[in-house]
């Protein structure tokens, strides 16, 4: 399977006979597409731009950790593991046709999984079983990327790939040929976007003002292989590497008559950005009790884990939420939802 080759690509070393790296890899079906952002714009309805959201159905515009318990407040999750009521969300991709109208790009499911669009989620422990990885604590949240970015940044862990028709498992963690920019040509296999979160924590704060300072990427070593590398002294605690993979079905727009006459790149993030630099990912921890720690300690692999409870794809797809902001985000529109706020 492609994802097993992917796991092999993430291994430390390339010696023959080495086993696949264990990594939890599972699907979270679409919960809702809405203009809400409880991290960056808590309580604001509508938020400035559209997000696609997956996970527990207690998601709302505020989610103040002082009084919002994702586990107790959710009655279902759109994710494979029934004890994962976390919420994950990213920007939404649009296609701008030659006539100036926009259409939302749907997501399709990554290899070997079943869902209604959504996000493929990875939790990757340290490469070896001797390294302790500490699961997140209640109230933990973090953000990768910058919705306001319009030029290349040092956020090296948000990237895109123009996928070939038969798929590509090499260097999933923002290695070549990935780029921060959106692809500038028609992609036979759609566009994959990957968002990889830091793996070092300060051990004290479950959040910070910018939702980033309490976590860090390793300062030395291989920062692309799970929770490896050496954490800085300011952030000494190794945490699971969370990675989001979204497959955008741009294949349905591979018609030269729709693309700009000059052949320029026609895709636009819901942030209003056509460069690609503004893609971002948000995470709010919501695993029940010690379930994530059990999964890390057992080095669970793929979407099968004896330490966790699993639901069928059909049940996961039943977990949806009515959107709060009523607006047309699926038809051909003259403006992406939120463009007026960004102007």
Tell me about this structure.
- With 343 residues, this protein is mainly beta.
- 8% of the residues lie in helices and 21% in strands.
- It has one domain (19-343).
- It has five helices and 17 strands.
- Strands 1, 7, 8, 10, 11 and 15 form a six-stranded antiparallel β-sheet that branches. A five-stranded antiparallel β-sheet has the order 2-3-4-17-9, with no helix packed on it. The chain has a three-stranded antiparallel β-sheet with strand order 6-5-16, with no helix packed on it.
- The longest helix is centred in the N-terminal third of the chain and has 8 residues, at 2-9.
- The chain is globular and about 55 Å long.
Mean pLDDT: 89
Helix content range of the residues, please? under 10%
Proportion in β-strands = 15-25%
Using the CA coordinates, give the radius of gyration: 19 Å
- What is the terminal-to-terminal distance? 45 Å
Secondary-structure element series: HEEEHEEEEEEEEEEEEEEHHH
Uncertain residue segments: 8-19
Give a short account of the largest sheet: 6 strands, antiparallel
Structural class: mainly beta
Global morphology: globular
Please provide the count of β strands. Answer: 17
Domain count: 1
Per DSSP, the total helix count is 5
């Amino acid at each position: 399977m492609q994802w097993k080759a992917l796991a092999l690509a993430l291994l430390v070393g390339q010696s023959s006979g080495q086993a696949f790296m264990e990594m939890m890899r599972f699907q979270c079906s679409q919960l809702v597409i809405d203009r809400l952002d409880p991290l960056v714009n808590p309580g604001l309805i509508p938020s400035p731009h559209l997000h696609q959201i997956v996970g527990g159905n207690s998601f709302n515009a505020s989610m103040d950790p002082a009084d919002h318990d994702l586990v107790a407040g959710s009655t279902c999750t759109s994710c494979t593991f029934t004890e994962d009521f976390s919420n994950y969300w990213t920007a939404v991709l649009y296609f701008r046709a030659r006539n100036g109208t926009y259409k939302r790009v749907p997501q399709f499911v990554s290899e070997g999984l079943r869902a209604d669009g959504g996000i493929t989620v990875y939790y990757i422990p340290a490469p070896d079983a001797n390294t302790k990885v500490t699961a997140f604590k209640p109230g933990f949240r973090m953000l990768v990327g910058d919705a306001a970015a319009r030029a290349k940044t040092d956020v090296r862990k948000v990237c895109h790939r123009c996928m070939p028709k038969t798929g590509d498992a090499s260097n999933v963690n923002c290695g070549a040929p990935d780029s921060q920019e959106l692809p500038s040509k028609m992609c036979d296999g759609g566009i994959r976007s990957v968002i990889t979160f830091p793996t070092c924590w300060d051990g004290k704060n479950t959040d910070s003002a910018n939702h980033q300072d309490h976590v860090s990427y390793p300062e030395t070593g291989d920062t692309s292989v799970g929770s490896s590398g050496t954490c800085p002294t300011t952030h000494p605690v190794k945490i699971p590497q969370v990675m989001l993979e979204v497959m955008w079905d741009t294949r349905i727009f591979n018609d030269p008559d729709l693309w700009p006459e000059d052949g320029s790149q026609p895709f636009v993030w819901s942030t209003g950005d056509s460069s690609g630099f503004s893609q971002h990912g948000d995470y709010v921890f919501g695993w029940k009790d010690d379930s994530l720690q059990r999964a890390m300690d057992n080095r669970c692999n793929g979407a099968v884990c004896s330490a966790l409870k699993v639901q069928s794809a059909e049940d996961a797809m039943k977990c949806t939420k009515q959107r709060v902001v009523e607006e047309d985000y699926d038809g051909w529109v003259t403006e992406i939802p939120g463009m007026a706020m960004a102007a």
